[in-house]
Design brief:
Radius of gyration: 19 Å
Shape: globular
Number of domains: 2
CATH superfamily of the largest domain: Spore Coat Polysaccharide Biosynthesis Protein SpsA, Chain A
CATH architecture of the largest domain: Alpha-Beta Complex
Strand order of the largest sheet: 3-2-1-4-9-6-12
Number of helices: 9
Structural class: alpha/beta
Mean pLDDT: 88
Oligomer: single chain
Low-confidence stretches: 262-266, 268-292
Helix content: 25-40%
Order of helices and strands: EHEHEHEEHEEEEEEEEHHHHH
Number of strands: 13
Length: about 290
């Protein structure tokens, strides 16, 4: 089998000892697994090595740059990029194995639907599904977006194919983890917007949160997901509010950052790496996958 027909799975991680095992086991079909860890102290690296992964310890440069670094350490050109809180479903695995047998000749990359488990339930409405992610790509024709953006995208030169198997996403460990992630990510976003010369108005504190709530809860039918749908829509609105409120604070020069916080993307010392992020109780069949 030529190098172009092999797959390197790449995972970035930080303090993911409780989740990285399931992630890596779902990637056992790949020809290589590379884990780039940014200084975990909870045993994440030992677990990854124990499961046969090549582990690279590298200081945190940001989400996109860290993912590009992982791809650079891979031995093969085709990259399957996951976060430590994600897993490949059986259906998706079979699709990727079939593509590998054919040499991936048709496209420069492939996207896949991502299904998220939120506080114990799979969310299939409210704008969270299918949430397609381009995660399988030829590194010779693709790279991740640069900067501190917490949700980077990989861009490829060429066409992108579509897979139907789900990428499982075991997201926040708790509601508190969700809120901490919002705080961290909105700080990163506000700083990025400020650096790009974006400005916030008082009106933005009302219009953007309202628009987010209506989109997630009404237009995307989040109300059908019960109390979780309501929580998701409200926290989406809160995310928008915090982002613009923090931008206003920054542009008025009243940020409460300590010097070291500016390097980690925090207002009050929350390290953005803690927001990076799989259990086999997930549905076994395609039909079951959709009935969550």
């Amino acid at each position: 089998m030529s190098s172009s027909a092999r797959i390197s799975a790449c995972v970035i991680a930080f303090q993911e000892a409780d989740r990285i095992g399931d992630c890596l086991r779902s990637l056992a079909f790949c020809d290589e697994i590379v884990v780039v860890d940014s200084g975990s102290t909870d045993g994440t690296q030992d677990i990854a090595r124990g499961l046969g992964a090549v582990v690279v310890d590298h200081a945190w440069p940001g989400f996109g740059p860290q993912k590009d670094l992982a791809a650079q350490h891979a031995s093969h050109d085709w990259i399957l990029q996951l976060d430590a809180d994600e897993r490949v479903s059986r259906t998706l695995r079979h699709e990727i194995e079939t593509l590998r047998e054919g040499g991936f000749a048709e496209h420069a990359g492939w996207d896949m639907p991502r299904c998220t488990n939120y506080l114990g339930a799979w969310i299939v409405r409210g704008g969270w599904y299918p949430d397609r992610q381009l995660r399988l790509y030829d590194r010779r024709r693709g790279s991740w977006s640069v900067g501190r953006e917490p949700h980077p995208r990989v861009g490829v030169e060429g066409t992108v194919g579509r897979l139907s198997g789900d990428l499982f996403h075991d997201t926040y460990r708790s509601f508190g983890h969700h809120l901490a992630t919002i705080d961290s990510y909105t700080t990163i976003m506000a700083q990025d917007m400020a650096e790009r010369g974006k400005r916030a108005r008082t009106l933005d504190l009302f219009t953007h949160p309202l628009a987010r709530f209506v989109r997630f809860y009404v237009l995307k039918r989040g109300f059908l997901d019960g109390w979780r749908g309501a929580v998701i829509a409200i926290t989406a609105a809160y995310y928008a509010f915090l982002k613009y409120a923090k931008l206003m604070v920054l542009q008025e020069g009243r940020a409460t950052q300590r010097p070291q916080d500016a390097q980690t993307g925090t207002f009050e010392g929350i390290d953005d790496r803690t927001a990076v992020g799989a259990d086999e109780s997930a549905p076994r069949s395609r039909a079951a996958e959709r009935t969550r």
